[in-house]
Amino acid sequence: MLKTYRTVQFTEYGGPEVLQVVEREVPLPGPGEVLVEVRAAGVNPLDWQLRSGAVAAMMPVAFPAVPGGDVAGVVRGVGEGVSDFVAGDEVFGSIGTGGCAEFVSAPAAQLARKPANVPWEVAAGLPVAVNTAFQALDDLGVKAGQTLVVDGAAGGVGSVAVQIARHLGATVIGTASERNHAYLRSLGAEPVTYGEGLAERVRALAPRGADAAFDTAGKGSLPELVDVTGGPERVVTIADHRAEEHGVRFVFAGAGEIRGRLERAAALVVAGELTLSVARTYTLSEAADAHRESEGGHVRGKLVVVPG
Ligand SMILES: NC(=O)c1ccc[n+]([C@@H]2O[C@H](COP(=O)([O-])OP(=O)(O)OC[C@H]3O[C@@H](n4cnc5c(N)ncnc54)[C@H](OP(=O)(O)O)[C@@H]3O)[C@@H](O)[C@H]2O)c1
């Protein structure tokens, strides 16, 4: 096996230009870890939030830091205490950081088996979106017959939340810019434009209001979402840090239930009930461009880095 591998890393907080590609020695997997040869790494907003230092007060990184919380690849070695994977298994998962590289040593508990017919790019785009969408929909108690509003429905988390809610039997009203309305229809949501007047536009489609609302965008829609659902307990956000002011729950998706959620998502993908739009793929040396695009805030689905 290779002795060295290429990885993206940064040694200080800053703009996308702090990302460099360097060679490192292939690590041995530690206890509870597996060594993964990365086939694709999904890009999440948290990747550039960690790189820029924007969240350093809550989530400081250890330098040199490797971006990439979402990963899909092939197990090449297993550490002490790992009995659920063997070399050659195809896996995907949410590992926090380190995925934007040719190899990563990752916690086995945060990985699941990738079905053979799910493309690497799709598997790599799913983990954070799936974990977060399941967490939010569980917290809201979304069920068949209800109407759910997903604000930011064309993004990574939003597009997955729309499809899981549809699978549960809910009617979904999703917000996006005009250019994404046909895309939202293809996911099974009724599209509306986001921004001021949102409650009115939702009521035009659901005259009695909505049962629940999921804010993925964090762009100030909470008062209108509370209005259209009839109470702050019917709304959750993953991105608006003023949630408390509005009496709304801020949801943080931890790693506790990740494997089960990945397995449920994989089954939905195989059954054709969950799709993921991969907006663009990048090489390792283009990782800075991927961060710039994500930071722009208008990705449809996911961006994915493919080590090549
Ligand atoms: N708390 C947690 O556990 C957790 C977990 C995951 C993510 N997050 C956070 O949740 C947010 C979303 O994550 P993501 O991965 O889904 O991001 P993303 O994929 O980058 O989201 C991009 C989407 O946001 C939409 N958008 C842009 N401006 C909007 C607005 N004003 N109102 C509604 N939608 C708007 C865009 O639609 P158009 O192109 O049509 O404008 C685009 O499709 C990020 O801030 C991320 O850090 C939190």
The name of the CATH superfamily of the largest domain reads Medium-chain alcohol dehydrogenases, catalytic domain
Radius of gyration: 19 Å
Basic shape: globular
Provide the succession of SSEs: EEEHEEEEHHEHEHEHEHEEHEHE
List its salient traits.
308 residues, alpha/beta, Quinone Oxidoreductase, Chain A, domain 1, Rossmann fold, 2 domains, seven-stranded mixed sheet, six-stranded parallel sheet, 28% helix, binds NADP nicotinamide-adenine-dinucleotide phosphate
Which secondary structure elements does this structure contain, and how are they paired or packed?
Elements: E1 4-9, E2 20-25, E3 33-43, H1 45-52, E4 70-78, E5 90-94, E6 103-107, E7 111-113, H2 120-125, H3 127-140, E8 147-151, H4 156-168, E9 171-175, H5 181-187, E10 190-192, H6 198-205, E11 212-215, H7 222-229, E12 235-237, E13 249-250, H8 258-270, E14 278-282, H9 287-296, E15 302-305
Parallel strand pairs: 8-9, 8-11, 9-10, 11-12, 12-13, 14-15
Antiparallel strand pairs: 1-2, 3-4, 3-6, 3-15, 4-5, 5-7
Helix pairs in contact: 3-4, 3-8, 6-7
NADP nicotinamide-adenine-dinucleotide phosphate (NAP) binds at residues 44-46, 128, 132, 151-152, 154-158, 175-177, 180, 194, 216-219, 238-239, 251-253, 294, 297-300.
Description:
By secondary structure, this protein is an alpha/beta fold. The chain folds into 2 domains: 4-126 and 277-305, Alpha-Beta Complex (Quinone Oxidoreductase, Chain A, domain 1), CATH 3.90.180.10; 129-250, Rossmann fold (3-Layer(aba) Sandwich), CATH 3.40.50.720. Helix content is 28%, strand content 25%. The chain has 9 helices and 15 strands. It has helices at residues 45-52, 120-125, 127-140, 156-168, 181-187, 198-205, 222-229, 258-270, 287-296; strands at residues 4-9, 20-25, 33-43, 70-78, 90-94, 103-107, 111-113, 147-151, 171-175, 190-192, 212-215, 235-237, 249-250, 278-282, 302-305. Strands 3, 4, 5, 6, 7, 14 and 15 form a 7-stranded mixed β-sheet that branches. Strand 11, helix 7 and strand 12 (235-237) form a beta-alpha-beta unit. Helix 3 packs across helix 4, helix 3 packs across helix 8 (258-270) and helix 6 runs parallel beside helix 7. The radius of gyration is 19 Å and the shape is globular. The two termini are 17 Å apart. NADP nicotinamide-adenine-dinucleotide phosphate (NAP) binds at residues 44-46, 128, 132, 151-152, 154-158, 175-177, 180, 194, 216-219, 238-239, 251-253, 294, 297-300.
